[in-house]
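name: query_chain
kind: protein
chains: 1
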Amino acid sequence: MTSPQVDNTSEGPSGKTSEEGYERGLGSRQVQMIAIGGAIGVGLFMGAGANIAKAGPSIILMYALAGVVIFFIMRALGELLLYRPVSGSFAEYAREFLGPFFGYVTGWTYWLMWIVTGMAELTAAAIYIHFWFPAIPQWVSALVFLVVLFGVNLISVKIFGEVEFWFSMVKVTAIIGMIVIGLGVLTLGFSDAGETAATGNLWQHGGIFPNGIGSSLMTLQGVMFAYLAVELVGVTAGESENPEKTLPKAINTLPWRIIVFYVGALTVILAVVRWTEFSEGESPFVHAFAKIGIPLGAGIVNFVVLTAALSSCNSGMYSTGRMLRDLAANKEAPQALGRLNTRRTPAAGIAASVALMGIGVVLNYVVPEKAFLYVTSVATAAGIWTWMMILISHIKYRSAVVAGRLPASSFPAPGGSALSWVALVFLAFVTCLIAYDSDARISLYVGAVWAVFLVGGWALLKRGDRDLAGPGRDEPEGPYEPEYAKISD
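structure:
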């Protein structure tokens, strides 16, 4: 049997292409920064304010705990990616190890996650523009961003990678700058914040758990939202120039990114500014910059948060197009959505996703203020499903490797399947927290409705006697290969 780790490539009109037909246009520099950017989003810049108000200094521990679990998930995904690097990523692995139905559900659910996230991010970006240009109607800003990012994704994967590289660079620079300035305030005592800044702020004013451990644990659902998109590096597998080298490096640096950008940044911020001064709906970065008294600080942070929103929306367009093409290749979506344009990008799938994101701009304009909370809750629930499918697929893969049915990956996860089980239990616990929270619980209701649609769609596909994804065995002897070649470009 030929090892599935060998990735067949060919020379296309625009350069090296994968067996899926994509251009391998993402270099190491871009993949690394996409991985970094995926771990830094609006959930940190904006959502952390509400989490700090609920949990106090213990929010640092919550981000650290969730970060450890995210690393387990990403190492499980990394082992699968080096076993068989494909753009369909976790949907393909769910299809191979759990059966066609689970691949179908995972692909469409991940697509839904990015659609609703794109809706929220476009609206948020338009609101941020009001900071500088209050006279511009919100729908105009949202429409401009939608069209520009749509064009970026249609031109080529190289352009997408370059835009995402600079989006991520802005976010990284802002956080490092905040850490350096905060350390300066703590050690040198300059600015008005220097009078009250002290490491004692991390355990004084009510202790590390000022509102109780229960309140701290309830923030885990919001914390997990902040980590959404970290798995995006897996979707880039089919378009990375050298996935065998770039993907392990991107995944192995994840702990350092979490330590610096989440644990480090929040530790410095909460040492400089007492946790009691933060509130929901306010960015902790904006508040900290204002407290220190940095000129133009509010404008700088507003630009960074705008960049984070656009980065998320840009990534959403990229991933939804690839997921729809993978679904089309497995005859689980209309075949037209699987076509590539002359630049080797899934233009039809991206266009369909962008159209739905555009509808979201209109909807978000008329719904109440809690719409953003509802949307992020739905996205978190969809993300948890995706992560669970990664972990279960990894457990099944390791079982097949031990049994000698599949070759071992060149990037094995530490701890094997045991740590995947630990991560699964943690995700199940977070799901229970979502069910307990009256506001976030709506995501489970939406999930139930979504499940009805998916089951109905699957029944229609089966009724049409389509060749869905090969035999539905639990532990196959080899990977199922979707028929990309049969989709006309």
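note: The longest strand covers residues 9-12.
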